[in-house]
């Protein structure tokens, strides 16, 4: 009589147990980490002083520094972000097509392209930059390629998801007209994913502006190089000038993207 | 009688498309020249690239102890910063929610969150490295700041979307503010909080393997020094470890999300 | 006569199963040689849609032959298949237009089988195609909507565009899969009228899957009743009796 009841109870009990296990593991991992992490307590207590000291040295901004060095480096950063985003499309679009199950109905192909997309996303853009600096030497090329290779996974994944959401009835109708595969792609898939495509690319460009600002720290060009130099020389007022310009560019890029999106919809 | 009249082409070629293509092409050329990119340099690099790949494979795990040290530090950084960051975000998110707090509390809190968000974690990391020195502490502080910037905002938004009826019902019983939060607000947003938190744990794990590049502890530091010493086969070993740990993290956070669904 | 002979559509012993051991079409034999609407009736899930899709190979039948234009469509692939497909117009229940393109361009997508992908991309439709598209649009009563996007139209208007697209293909046969099921009764009649007119004018058969038996009888020159993957009635619309309907749909409570 009580079989159903009993099973139901057991299920919630399991669930409770699972939740409890998660809490327990979280607390245990946290405590273990706190006890073993290599942090000198004195440094920790001193941190607020050090940080406020650093900020006091940063004021006022060295505005004279902007036209001399910062502006050109900032432009270079924007170029890296934009070129990187354009270059990434060469790889991301085919991979997205191969990854979308409603374009290529072959699990092996889907899986292979997914492998590339996941690898691209798992490696941070700074690490990609290190690799490309090793290949091409310090400079802009490494930056552009780092941005491009990191973005492939992002754009490819989101684009593949957008493609998988389209209305397949339309595709069926176009195939029924005798249209070739390429024509179906152009007249069936493309009009349907077009808004998502531009939205995804803009979104990634916005992220890339932020990311390209730090690539210079490993020598891959842009404003990061200037920031790194100023830091190594302890020129705090220049550092704050650079930080402020990065902040301004990031905000401007975000406003720009929001405006373009509004107009597109 | 049948006058064959031609209908005008309904697709007047709009200049916008052509202009768009020209602008992009012109930009590519300009940017390439401006930044001294050339095919020759690119091809030369490809040569280096194959040499590099040669040296990267097979991966070299002989110094696994070093690898393990870095990995453990990365995980410590990720775990502590996630727990502390999420815990702090609970309060900061609550303070930033405009339906729970008066404007003089929520507005400044929002500014703080926005500041935490605007800078890339690596930039925050170098500032902390300068302030508190090399090591895990700088990494911890960085990722706490990054977590607050990301997750406090999501928490605030989730709280702002709750149904206020339940809050009023509990308030009508004369409950204190704390009880209202615990019994009317938290149950409504709990599962979403778990989702955000898991996402943040993922993201902190990724970032904890990166902040080391600028000296903030963890596997990134190991990676960076391997690069500087041209130990490319060790680099591959580290990269594979990072990818494996990130995939494992994604798998585990997916499981936890299932449990709390 | 000679031409319509050549464009016979013959289905011979057609079988299809989505899952092994669960056949949905069992040995269908049908000839389509006269122009006008041929209504295919039958309960949901009896394989009407599958039958139509096996004809133009949107679904590959498990076995059997589809003879069209003197070729067995089940034996051709790729370019050859597409060359035949362009003479088989298809109309869908959910219209299946490219929502974000204009009405006139939706009509012109019916010509995609005749043009290269490059020309499709550049929108290099021939002047003849453009003229035909506008004339057809006028005929289906949507002249003023040519440059509107398809997603701004009502259901009935969309179905007119869908039919016009199929006719743009210059088809030897029309397939229509539940073309009226998503429409209100009045619009449904209009759509059937339009299909009837076009099929007669083009002198081609139009195979129409349809649920509404009386609507089918009103326009069809011939009716095919299907049940359980078999053809159980094939003849003039007047010849359908209540017994036939009972056999097709099972039970009788729905009749009264």
Automatic annotation (TrEMBL), chain A:
Topology within the bilayer: Multi-pass membrane protein
GO CC aspect terms: plasma membrane
All copies of domain ABC transmembrane type-1, residue ranges: 74-257
UniProt-annotated location(s): Cell membrane
PROSITE patterns: ABC_TM1 (PS50928)
Keyword Ligase among record annotations: no
SUPFAM superfamilies hit by this protein: MetI-like
Pfam families named in the record: BPD_transp_1
Recorded GO MF terms: ABC-type phosphonate transporter activity
InterPro entries: MetI-like (IPR000515), MetI-like_sf (IPR035906), PhnE/PtxC (IPR005769)
Swiss-Prot/TrEMBL keywords: Cell membrane, Membrane, Transmembrane, Transmembrane helix, Transport
Chief location bin: membrane
Segments crossing the lipid bilayer: 20-44, 126-149, 240-260
Keyword Iron: no
Family of the protein in this entry: Belongs to the binding-protein-dependent transport system permease family.
Protein name from the UniProt record: Phosphonate ABC transporter, permease protein PhnE
Organism: Oceanospirillum sediminis
Automatic annotation (TrEMBL), chain B:
CDD domains on file: TM_PBP2
Location in the cell: Cell membrane
Family matches, as Pfam families: BPD_transp_1
Membrane topology: Multi-pass membrane protein
Keywords from the UniProt entry: Cell membrane, Membrane, Transmembrane, Transmembrane helix, Transport
Gene3D superfamilies to which the protein is assigned, alphabetical: MetI-like (1.10.3720.10)
Any one GO cellular component localisation term in the record: plasma membrane
UniProt record similarity statement: Belongs to the binding-protein-dependent transport system permease family.
Protein name: Phosphonate ABC transporter, permease protein PhnE
Species this chain originates from: Oceanospirillum sediminis
Encoding gene per record: phnE
Automatic annotation (TrEMBL), chain C:
Start and end residues of each ABC transporter domain: 9-253
Pfam family, one: ABC_tran
Superkingdom of origin organism: Bacteria
Membrane keyword on record: yes
Main location: membrane
Topological type in the membrane: Peripheral membrane protein
UniProtKB keywords: ATP-binding, Cell membrane, Membrane, Nucleotide-binding, Translocase, Transport
Compartments reported by the entry: Cell inner membrane
PROSITE patterns (alphabetical): ABC_TRANSPORTER_1 (PS00211), ABC_TRANSPORTER_2 (PS50893)
NCBIfam families hit by this protein: ABC_phnC
Name this protein carries in UniProt: Phosphonate ABC transporter ATP-binding protein
Species, as recorded: Oceanospirillum sediminis
């Amino acid at each position: 009589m009580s079989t159903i009841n009993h099973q139901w109870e057991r299920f919630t009990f399991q669930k409770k147990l699972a939740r409890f296990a998660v809490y327990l593991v979280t607390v245990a991992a946290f405590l273990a980490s706190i006890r073993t992490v290599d942090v000198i307590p004195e440094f920790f207590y001193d941190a607020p002083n050090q940080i406020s000291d650093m900020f006091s040295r940063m004021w006022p901004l060295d505005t004279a520094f902007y036209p001399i060095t910062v502006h050109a480096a900032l432009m270079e950063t924007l170029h890296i972000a934009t070129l990187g985003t354009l270059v990434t499309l060469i790889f991301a679009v085919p991979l997205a097509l191969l990854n979308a199950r409603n374009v290529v109905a072959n699990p092996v192909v889907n899986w292979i392209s997914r492998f590339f997309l996941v690898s691209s996303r798992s490696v941070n853009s700074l690490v990609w930059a290190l690799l490309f600096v090793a290949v091409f030497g310090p400079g802009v090329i490494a930056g552009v390629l780092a941005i491009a290779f990191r973005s492939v996974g992002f754009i490819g994944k989101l684009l593949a998801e957008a493609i998988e959401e389209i209305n397949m009835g339309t595709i069926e109708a176009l195939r029924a007209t005798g249209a070739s595969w390429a024509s179906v792609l152009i007249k069936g898939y493309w009009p349907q994913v077009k808004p998502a495509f531009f939205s995804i690319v803009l979104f990634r460009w916005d992220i890339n502006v932020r990311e390209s600002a730090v690539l210079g720290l490993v020598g891959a060009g842009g404003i990061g190089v200037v920031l790194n130099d100023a830091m190594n020389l302890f020129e705090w007022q220049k550092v704050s000038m650079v930080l402020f310009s990065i902040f301004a560019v990031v905000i401007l890029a975000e406003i720009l993207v929001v405006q373009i999106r509004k107009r597109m919809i | 009688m049948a006058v064959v009249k031609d209908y005008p082409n309904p697709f007047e070629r709009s200049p916008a498309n052509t202009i768009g293509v020209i602008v992009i092409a012109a930009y590519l050329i300009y940017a390439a020249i401006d930044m001294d990119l050339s095919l020759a340099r690119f091809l030369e690099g490809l040569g280096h690239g194959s040499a590099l790949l040669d040296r990267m494979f097979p991966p070299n795990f002989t110094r696994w102890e070093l690898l393990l040290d870095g990995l453990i530090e990365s995980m410590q950084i990720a775990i502590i910063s996630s727990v502390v960051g999420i815990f702090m975000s609970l309060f900061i998110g609550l303070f930033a929610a405009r339906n729970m707090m008066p404007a003089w509390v929520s507005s400044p809190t929002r500014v703080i969150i926005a500041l935490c968000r605007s800078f890339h974690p690596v930039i925050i990391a170098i500032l902390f490295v300068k302030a508190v020195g090399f090591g895990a502490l700088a990494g911890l502080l960085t990722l706490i700041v990054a977590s607050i910037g990301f997750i406090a905002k999501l928490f605030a938004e989730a709280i702002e979307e709750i149904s206020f009826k339940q809050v009023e019902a509990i308030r009508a019983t004369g409950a204190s503010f704390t009880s209202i939060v615990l019994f009317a607000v938290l149950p409504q947003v709990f599962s979403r909080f778990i989702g955000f938190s898991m996402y943040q744990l993922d993201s902190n794990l990724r970032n904890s393997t990166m902040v080391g590049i600028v000296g903030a502890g963890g596997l990134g530091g190991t990676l960076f020094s391997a690069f500087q010493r041209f130990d490319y086969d060790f680099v591959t070993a580290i990269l594979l470890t990072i990818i494996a740990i990130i995939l494992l993290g994604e798998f585990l956070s997916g499981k936890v999300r299932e449990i709390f669904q | 006569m000679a031409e319509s002979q050549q464009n016979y559509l013959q289905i011979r012993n057609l079988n299809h199963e989505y899952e092994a051991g669960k056949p949905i079409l069992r040995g269908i034999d049908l000839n389509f040689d006269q122009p006008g609407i041929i209504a295919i009736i039958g309960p949901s899930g009896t394989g009407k849609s599958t039958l139509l899709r096996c004809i133009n190979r949107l679904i590959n039948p498990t076995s059997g032959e589809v003879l069209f234009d003197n070729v067995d469509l089940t034996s051709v692939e790729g370019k050859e298949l597409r060359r035949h497909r362009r003479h088989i117009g298809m109309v869908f229940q959910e219209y299946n237009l490219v929502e974000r393109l204009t009405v006139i361009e939706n009509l012109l997508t019916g010509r995609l089988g005749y043009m290269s992908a490059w020309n499709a991309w550049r929108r290099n439709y021939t002047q003849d195609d453009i003229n035909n598209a506008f004339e057809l649009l006028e005929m289906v009563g949507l002249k003023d909507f040519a440059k509107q996007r398809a997603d701004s139209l009502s259901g009935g208007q969309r179905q007119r565009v869908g039919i016009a697209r199929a006719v743009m293909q210059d088809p030897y046969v029309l397939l229509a899969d539940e073309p009226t099921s998503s429409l209100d009764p009045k619009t449904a009649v209009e759509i059937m009228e339009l299909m009837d007119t076009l099929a007669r004018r083009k002198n081609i058969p139009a195979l129409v899957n349809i649920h509404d038996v009386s609507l089918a009888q009103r326009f069809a020159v011939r009716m095919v009743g299907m049940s359980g993957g078999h053809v159980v009635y094939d003849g003039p619309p007047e010849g359908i009796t209540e017994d036939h309907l009972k056999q097709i749909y099972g039970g009788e409570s729905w009749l009264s």
